[in-house]
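User: Could you go from structure to sequence for me? I need the amino acid at each position, not a summary. Structure tokens:
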């Protein structure tokens, strides 16, 4: 199930539901209930028509009753757990609502280009002799490539949505790759992050996610609230 809650909800985007993540517990409960009732009817019929000289084994009958009761209890437990998960999702979403409209830092190389603006950050563990920044679109195509800062520590890259040939690319999700080299020619691995304004909170498969344009990120990836 997917539900989207935003700062300015509209009939088309406020709530969306999908079959994904739908619980099958009610079906299981109905099935076990039907089977249990059928079993009791058969057992009652057997008791009424049993051979007095060869009565039913009471121990076996008791074990069958206990087995059905255990299964029924397990299904009921799953139902309660589903309810707790749904309640937790609701609480998580309500707690996340104040984030709507704020700009956050996400621990992800993916970012949402909005109105021709997208800011990335990358942290170099040591000074590099050269750094190449490559931005790719959702299909993996390179749209921009250029030199980046080589200073050790945090560096910011504000991309204006311009491709290497000077053309303007459409808003959407883009990924930054940082290729940095040390003086000895070895590669330096940079931790990349992106910044985006949260448009809404989406509930999907029982978990709340941040929506920044078409980019969806889990709450766990927030590393800072910048504004």
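Assistant: Here is the amino acid at each position, in order:
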């Amino acid at each position: 199930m997917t539900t989207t809650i935003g700062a300015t909800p509209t009939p088309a985007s406020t709530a969306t539901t999908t079959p994904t993540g739908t619980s099958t517990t009610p079906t299981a409960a109905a099935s076990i209930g039907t089977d249990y009732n059928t079993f009791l009817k058969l057992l009652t019929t057997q008791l009424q028509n049993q051979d007095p000289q060869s009565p039913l084994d009471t121990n076996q009958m008791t074990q069958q009753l206990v087995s059905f009761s255990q299964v029924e209890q397990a299904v009921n437990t799953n139902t309660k757990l589903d309810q707790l998960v749904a309640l937790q999702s609701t609480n998580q979403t309500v707690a996340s609502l104040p984030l709507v409209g704020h700009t956050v830092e996400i621990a992800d190389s993916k970012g949402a280009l909005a109105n021709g603006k997208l800011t990335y950050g990358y942290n170099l563990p040591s000074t590099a002799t050269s750094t190449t920044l490559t931005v790719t679109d959702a299909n993996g195509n390179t749209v921009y490539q250029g030199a980046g800062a080589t200073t050790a520590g945090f560096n910011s890259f504000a991309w204006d949505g311009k491709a290497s040939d000077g053309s303007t690319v459409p808003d959407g999700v883009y990924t930054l790759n940082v290729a940095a080299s040390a003086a000895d020619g070895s590669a330096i691995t940079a931790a990349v992050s992106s910044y985006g304004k949260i448009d809404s909170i989406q509930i999907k498969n029982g978990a709340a996610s941040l929506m920044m344009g078409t980019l969806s990120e889990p709450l766990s990836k927030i590393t800072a609230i910048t504004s």
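One structural detail worth keeping in mind: Confidence is low (pLDDT under 50) at residues 7-25.
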